[in-house]
Specification:
The complex is a heterotrimer of chains A (369), B (267) and C (277). Chain A is of the alpha+beta class. Chain A folds into two domains: 204 residues, no CATH class; 113 residues, no CATH class. Chain A has 13 helices and 15 strands. Classes of the chains: A alpha+beta (369), B alpha/beta (267), C alpha/beta (277). Chains in contact: A-B, A-C, B-C.
Amino acid sequence: MSIYGFLHRSALKQLPECLNEAGYRCIGPRVREGAVTFGELTSIDDLPRGVGDEQRPAHYRLGEREDERLFAWAVGPQGLKSWLFTPRETLWRSRRDDDGRLYFETGSPADDRPLAAIGVRACDLAALRLQDAHFLEREPDPGYRKRRAGLFLVAVDCTHPAETCFCHSTGDGPACESGFDLALHELDDGFIVHAGSEAGERVAARLPLLPVGEEQEAARRDQQRAAIDAQQRALPGRNLRDALFANLDHERWQAVAERCLSCANCTSVCPTCFCHSHEEVPDLDGRTSEHLRQWDSCFTEGHSYIHGIVIRAETPERYRQWLTHKLGSWHDQYGRSGCVGCGRCITWCPVGIDLTEEATVICAEAGDD
Amino acid sequence: MTDERKPRVAVHKFSSCDGCQLAFLNLGPDLLRLAELVEIVHFAEAGPSNPDADVDIAFIEGSVSTPDERERLRRIRAHSGFLVTIGACATSGGLQALRNLRDSESEWREAIYARPEYIDSLAHATAIREHARVDLELWGCPVDGRQVLAAVRALLFGVPPVEERDKVCLECKRHQTVCVMVARGEPCMGPVTRTGCGALCPRFGRDCYACYGPAEGANTTSLAHRFEGLGLAPEAVARRFHFIHSGQEPFTGAGNEAAGIIPGKAR
Amino acid sequence: MTDPYLPREAEILERVDEAGSIFSLRLALTDPRARADYAFAPGQFNMVYLFGVGEVPISVVRLRGEDADFAHTIRPVGRVTRAMAELRAGDRLGIRGPFGRGWPLELAEGGDVVVITGGLGCAPAVTVVHHVLANRERFGRLVIMQGVKHSDDLIWAEQYARWREAPDTRVLLAADQARPGWTGQQGLITTLFDQAEFDRGRATVMMCGPEPMMVASARRLVDDGVEAGRIWLSMERNMQCAAGHCGHCQFGPRFVCRDGPVFHYPEVAGLLGVRGF
């Protein structure tokens, strides 16, 4: 029987302490630049206490709450992605000696300590599974693998979805079902704690857990129900592949492109998008050089460039590539849609394009499933 | 440029504020390393003066605003192998191209100068490329030292420098900066602006003002519409697009459209 | 674990100027053990790194079809390949690879082989011809069809002349626009198909070239009774990591670098030739 108990609000501070003692570097949600983003946690006081959020297409604002809740907000612009699949990373360094001989060495990660992430939502756990499938199966990515290997996950059920959230329709939330070491469900006076792995059990065993009462169970069920009912958006189906590929000439691609800035904000905040470009950065003296990779996007011109030809020169083609991949060909590649319903692409699109709306229009006639 | 002698470099100034030359001078230790790799034969602001020397690489700051500059540019082009414009003025006409938008050149001259008869300027301030073949354009107000050095390094390797054409947003997100438009309602020009600055302004909490000019595939119509939605008056939207690069499409047209200017009539 | 991103140093043993601006570099990994272990299948590619400039995917071949080690035949079209045009014997490059899936040469054994190429020469397909000629008894007839836009674009005329002399081998050339004196066919490559004698039921077709040409050829072959499942083609997309990670080479659900570059026609038929993919 896995550990399951109630942690009083005042005792939560022991969680990062336990993790630090176990050798983890803790990250968690913090308010930075007007948004909840993941950052280094030095103590539980860094968490966004009494902070709420308001999200709608192209709009995000934080606000104050009347209570002491730490997790009463929906996901901010950044999930776990940037901590594992880093926005910029050196893949190798090369050196050329006076005889023209070349020497190569791998780029090494800056901090080798394993990471513990506190406050990961169900949508981001689902996204993590997809990033794992992409970066670890078949040809494992060395940097990603190293960072992922030590990762300890403290998940938190989502109790306050935003207007842009639709994880219930993708089947990925709002409650955390699996894929975590510890899961928390926040109530007014504390947290229901549930261990999901052996590493989680070891940490949970050191926390002053109390039995979970009937009332607490009922409150949890109510909150979970309310979090589902609060979601206003939905994708028109779990598998839109055939519907999308049957509509490659749909007039909506052109219509959405008139609004789309092709700016890559959606793909950058998307927790599953994996595209990146390589860049060569030689030192000025020409003796050493660095080969980097950095986040790229199917919305850039360079993404589809081959010797003088840009395959997706126009925005309709780029938007179509994104949507047909995200909601379509992901099914062939990784056995499910690439969308986990986090709604980030809707909130953080500067002009508020809503992929659930676009997908609904484009797939309207073809039906799905 | 693969022969033994050091490549020769010139830095020329046209109508400008000298800020891009300062970007050179501000390179610090890299400027000294650069001086070891190339021979800087003309750079008046830093000392060496030899404007008509034959060079392998010529950097040009500033726009063409006077008949004399037009003539000087012709000579420079004839003496230069690879010609690089640095900064907004040289690349699109810059701030001073604002005067092209109004048929007021003589009016301004009368109002500003005590002895306007000594001023001999062209009707329009224009980009270097309007007058001479340009091999590479480095944008920004001012230009970014990293891009200048990368261009020199590439040329020393005998390859054309990489042109950065993506939008500022992508770089902003790589820095994990929180979007100032979505989180604060700032009218940020990042989604239509060319990258290269490292998303400098948004990283310091302010909106991008497009000093790197238009990115590839810039959808100015949609962004202008969004700015209206954020509460900007039409003149304010026009100023966003016309501020630094009024001389560069699609910014010229986007600003004109917002301000209700019909091209040709206003000039 | 080996790092799929780390290049290994290779030395240029020989440079051969081919036709026009095209050149070949014969290379060997400088680490003796790596050199001995290096093996590739025709149709695979390497990521070739020029110090301080960048990496490009280039098909791996064997120079003259027989020399040891490996070679790359390069047409200077981009920033990196133009800079590579300056390279000489003794210069060093970085090599990652080989990557990807090559031609189905074993599957093709026992039947006729049809090689269809278009444009300015096609290194991946040249390796097929070399392989068949080197193992002549294992294959039936060899039909080589090459199409060019203009007769002046044909390069490697000598190579075609040499292949024409090979046993049981037919070489057919087509030029859309032909100069007087052109001995080949005038028209698109598909106009050659009627003259091509091969067993429509048992031949294996391998194609390489511009996509519109491959689409037209594949459709025509299927109309002529060739099973779609016996047609293979080599594709090109932007490739940066070669490990199926960077996402640039995606063609619908396929990663060209990992699932290709050689594809079975039915795998890609749906999107082939669709603008934007």
